[in-house]
Amino acid sequence: MKTWGTVAVSGLLIIAALVTGSDLLMIAAAVVAGWRIAVSAWQALRIRLISIDLLVVVAAVGALFIHNYWESAAVTFLFALGTALEKATLQRTRGALGELVAAAPDTATRLRDGEPETVEIWELSPGDVVLVRNGEQVPVDGRVRNGHGGVDEATITGESVPAEKAAGSAVFAGTWLRSGVLQVEAVGIGADSTLAKIIHRVEDAQDDKARTQTFLERFSTWYTPGVMLAALLAGLLTRDVELALTLLVIGCPGALVIAIPVSIVAGIGRAAKDGVLIKGGEYLETAARVDTVVVDKTGTLTNGRPELTDVIALGSWSEDEVLRLAARAETASEHPLAAALIRGAESRGLEVPLIDTAEPVTGHGIRAWIDGHEVTVGTAALLRETPDPAPVLALNERGRTAMWVGVDGVAVGVVAVADTVRADAAAAVARLHRRGIRVVMATGDASRVADNVAAQLGVDEVRAELMPEDKLDIVAELQAAGRVVAMVGDGVNDTPALARADIGVAMGAAGSPAAIETADIALMADRLPRLPYALGLARRTVRTMRVTIAIALVTVAALLAGVLLGGVTMSIGMLVHEASVLLVIAIAMLLLRPTLPRGQ
């Protein structure tokens, strides 16, 4: 408000001076608008920095000495106005951070001996159970003990559709319960919550400087003294003080100074609002240059757990009968594939009663006794009659794990499971290709499994049967070939490769403080299409930076030509400068527009 108050008072004084013709009012306008600029210039000089503010102060004071009061008032007023606009813009572009801070809850309803009581957040301890009613905010990170409801997690993941929560589900502080009632056991409270870590990350990222910004700051340390020296020489050679002062004003690279920080803050803020955390300006610039993405398969391109894919019935048996027998036998097994068969049967509406009598056969499968019959699920070694291997071989060739289902030693069918491809993975790969980005799949799985997934998704290259250190070698190999590499993963085994890559991307980072802190880019939602979106936003931000830098440089060059050819005065020069600043700000603000397609 103080900045805008200064601008308002100075503007009113200028209007009064123009109406009354008073030189004193015009001088007063210059002093009101210029004293803050002078203080800023002095503070910079104290740390041996010749700032742009000094150019304006020298030009304004010089104009007063040659009795050009209007020029002095106009220059200081316009510069003060530009500074106020820049501050307002930075505050506006930090809007995403402000919304995150505002989302932090202050109170919670704690259950003590079954009775609800309202307490401050700081009064809670891990293990406390809080009650969240329909329409209320979730006050802590935790796990649902009882209840069922839909939670709006937009502040954390950027998801627009409420996520269904039930007993055992994770919930995050700052999200909103849109339906139902939940009892939540507190795990992360206050500064330990995911929301607090996101706020901290976005705050640090928006303050981080891009390489371009750092270069321009080094450039300005030489540029500003150079402009002052050039103006002095011009004044001495031409004996035209007004020309020298005009050159000082013309040389102010205001738009150049504001172009980079506004673009960075806007780009990172927009990404945060859409559930993508970018570590800082330098990483934003690097992400814009990525031309190769190395993607882990399991849990990234695929769902990360086996699911039922095929049921083949033999003889007079039906598919439902084969699947029901297999699922019932597997109720006595703790093998991961057993759960896939049971889920598959239940998804088809089949009842799967538990059985009491079964024995695992190491390396082959399981043998169970159901309704007086011996039922086996596993390899052909569990059968007394050797069946035609063609069905199993065909499924194995497609990257699926196939198992014989036998009754009393005779094969009655085949069931197969596989880690299924994510529904959105093919579209994400296609979007990366449209951006000219090569996609390399790296996995520890067998080649036939990896090739099957690659064929479904259209990735460019497959590297299979890898150890964690092999993924690191792949990243190093691609970098040695001149590629800018982003590594995408969601597991601890990917950490070395994530660290080595030019950009490390963590998938589904919500609820993982380590991923939020360490990844260069953290995709809060477990959605692969956020990756091409993040890389596209980075490119758009860097493109905006380049456009605004070009506008700033062209403006300075055009004004200098105007001064040398005649016709551009000090006040006109500053007016054009501030107009270029407004144009640069307007272009940067376009980054705040939502561009994430719905459902991604």
Describe the secondary structure blueprint for this structure.
Layout: H1 2-20, H2 23-46, H3 52-65, H4 69-93, H5 95-103, E1 107-112, E2 115-120, E3 129-132, E4 141-152, H6 154-157, E5 163-165, E6 170-171, E7 176-188, H7 194-207, H8 211-238, H9 241-250, H10 254-273, E8 276-278, H11 281-288, E9 292-296, H12 297-301, E10 302-313, H13 319-330, H14 336-347, E11 358-361, E12 365-370, E13 373-378, H15 390-397, E14 401-407, E15 410-421, H16 425-434, E16 438-442, H17 447-457, E17 461-463, H18 468-480, E18 485-489, H19 495-500, E19 503-507, H20 513-518, E20 521-523, H21 530-565, H22 570-589
Helix pairs in contact: 1-2, 1-4, 2-3, 2-4, 3-4, 3-9, 4-10, 4-22, 5-7, 7-10, 8-9, 8-10, 9-21, 9-22, 10-21, 10-22, 11-21, 13-14, 21-22
Please describe the structure with a list of short key phrases separated by commas or semicolons.
alpha+beta; Calcium-transporting ATPase, cytoplasmic domain N; 600 residues; elongated; P-typ_ATPase_IB; metal-binding; 7-stranded antiparallel beta sheet; ATPase_P-typ_cyto_dom_N
How much strand content do the residues show? Answer: 15-25%
CATH homologous superfamily identity of the domain at 291-501: Calcium-transporting ATPase, cytoplasmic domain N
Tally of alpha and pi helices: 22
User: From the 3D coordinates, which CATH architecture of the domain at 291-501 would you assign?
Assistant: 3-Layer(aba) Sandwich
Gyration radius over CA: 33 Å
Class by SSE composition: alpha+beta
Characterize the overall form: elongated
Protein name: Heavy metal translocating P-type ATPase
Membrane topology: Multi-pass membrane protein
Pfam families: E1-E2_ATPase, Hydrolase
Keywords: ATP-binding, Cell membrane, Membrane, Metal-binding, Nucleotide-binding, Translocase, Transmembrane, Transmembrane helix
